[in-house]
Amino acid sequence: MTVKAKGLDHVAIAVKDLDKAIPIYRDALGLELAEVEVVAEQHVRTAIFGHGMGRVELICPTDNDNGVARFLEKRGEGLHHICIEVEDIHAALAALKARGAPLIDETPKMGAGGAQIAFIHPKGTAGVLTELRQGTAKKEH
Ligand code: CO
Fold first, then answer.
1. Are 133 and 109 in contact (CB under 8 A)?
2. Residue 25, domain member (yes or no)
């Protein structure tokens, strides 16, 4: 079975201090800051650079009791996950499972903007937590 991806939707980088990291990405790397938001359910603040495919997201925990905070404690700042936009998330999950990749989400869940998302354990994707997304998050900027 083969599946088709549309490409890289975003990369997410875990940071300890969002307000310190934003000027580096915006002013020194020159990326357009599209949005800064608090995602209350996930206990993070995010800064999103760019629009459409290939966005860069900085994620910063707002308390100590969440996955991103534990990631920072264990591994320090750095690449947290990548997100691949696929045409058929169910087919992609089935293909990954058939190849023995451990899935964090066996079935897709609702992401921002009504997209379907699912996470693949880093053990199945060469050490990088990978998010699959079907349907682009449509937000007005
Ligand atoms: Co993501």
1. no
2. yes
Could you report how far apart the first and last alpha carbons of the chain are, in Å? Answer: 38
pLDDT more than 90, % of the chain: 84
* Gap from CA of 133 to ligand 1 centroid (Å): 9
Is 103 within 8 Å of 120 (Cβ atoms)? yes
Residue 53 pLDDT > 90 = yes
* CA 69 from centroid of its chain's CA atoms: 15
Cβ–Cβ under 8 Å, residues 113 and 136: yes
**Cα 112 to Cα 81: distance, rounded to the nearest angstrom:** 16
How far does the centroid of ligand 1 lie from the alpha carbon of residue 10, in Å?
7
How many structural domains comprise the chain? 1
Helices (H), 15-88: 18-23, 67-75
- pLDDT tens across 95-120, in order? 999 999 999 999 999 887 789 999 99
- Joined together, the tokens standing for residue 77 give 């700042």
- Work out the pLDDT band at 141, boundaries 50, 70, 90: very low
Q: How far is the CA of 76 from the centre of ligand 1 (A)?
A: 18
Q: Let me know if residue 104 belongs to a domain.
A: yes
